[in-house]
Design a protein that fits this description.
With 265 residues, the chain is of the alpha+beta class. The strands form 2 sheets. It has a 6-stranded antiparallel beta sheet. A 4-stranded antiparallel beta sheet has the order 1-4-2-3. Helix 3 runs antiparallel to helix 5. The longest helix is centred in the C-terminal third of the chain and has 21 residues. The chain is globular.
């Protein structure tokens, strides 16, 4: 389920205290008042986390879940801002995602936390340095059912270290959730798979003591080829635009694609 930017906007304008705080932060950024930015961001995040949600916003969030949040089991609440994955500004790991959400109250709190991460001191400073205005920045939210994983990571449909190498697809992974790769808590295994002539090679073992079994590496080769097909499907007019794909694999060997977006490094 996707919560659009407009839902965050309706929530923010419902609180005069939040609106006042945003106005103060804009002024501090315009005046380059460096010492004032961090405390203003912290105050704003606290206000957002504590502000009551209008009934219409609550209904928009909970009403789309069949049977409600309680019946949905464990949920994952992910950030999806318009100020990330941009040319020259990736924002990887800057915004919050919460992977252990149960029930309505935890869901609403997690959504508030993701919205609040748009105004963290780190994210505000990085965007300001990149020339991205606070007025032009919004946060969408993706809500997904949690899927247990034996393996997860990120697939990029190019060779990031040699972009002219159109044959190879880069893939990294670690045991368990792909979040450990995305947030940097684990050093992933790294692979390159040739989707033209076939074959692949291990680039690095990361934090692992040994390589993955041959059968698993063969499954990853199939995933790499799937990535190429997805690139072709989503290419529109630019067939050379690579994709950044977060994925996971269950203990039954089934793949789930968690997120697909343009690769903009």
């Amino acid at each position: 389920m996707a919560l659009p930017f407009a839902l965050q906007h309706r929530f923010l304008i419902s609180s005069p205290a939040v609106q006042q705080g945003i106005g103060k932060l804009k002024m501090a950024l315009e005046l380059d008042a460096v010492d004032a930015v961090d405390p203003l961001c912290l105050q704003l995040q606290q206000l957002i986390r504590q502000a009551p949600m209008p009934d219409e916003v609550v209904r928009s969030i909970t009403g789309a879940l069949p049977g409600g949040a309680a019946a949905a089991g464990r949920l994952v609440v992910r950030s999806s801002s318009n100020a990330e994955d941009l040319p020259g500004f990736s924002a990887a790991g800057v915004y919050d995602s919460i992977t252990t959400v149960h029930g309505t109250e935890e869901l609403l709190d997690a959504v508030r936390q993701v919205w609040a991460s748009l105004l963290s001191a780190r994210s505000v400073r990085l965007r300001h340095q990149a020339g991205i205005s606070l007025d032009d920045t919004y946060m969408g939210v993706i809500i997904q059912r949690y899927q247990p994983a034996d393996l997860g990571g990120v697939l990029v449909t190019c060779n990031p270290t040699r972009r002219v190498d159109f044959r190879n697809v880069y893939l990294n992974c670690s045991p368990g959730s792909p979040e450990t790769v995305v947030d940097g808590t684990a050093l992933p295994l790294q692979y390159l798979y040739n989707t033209v002539e076939g074959g692949g090679r291990t680039v690095a073992l990361g934090s692992s003591a040994e390589d993955l079994p041959a059968g698993t590496r063969q499954r990853l080769a199939q995933l790499a080829l799937t990535g190429r097909l997805l690139q072709s499907h989503f290419s529109d007019t630019d067939v050379d635009q690579p994709l950044d794909i977060e994925w996971l694999m269950t203990d039954q060997g089934a793949f789930h694609l968690v997120q697909i977006r343009p690769y903009a490094r």
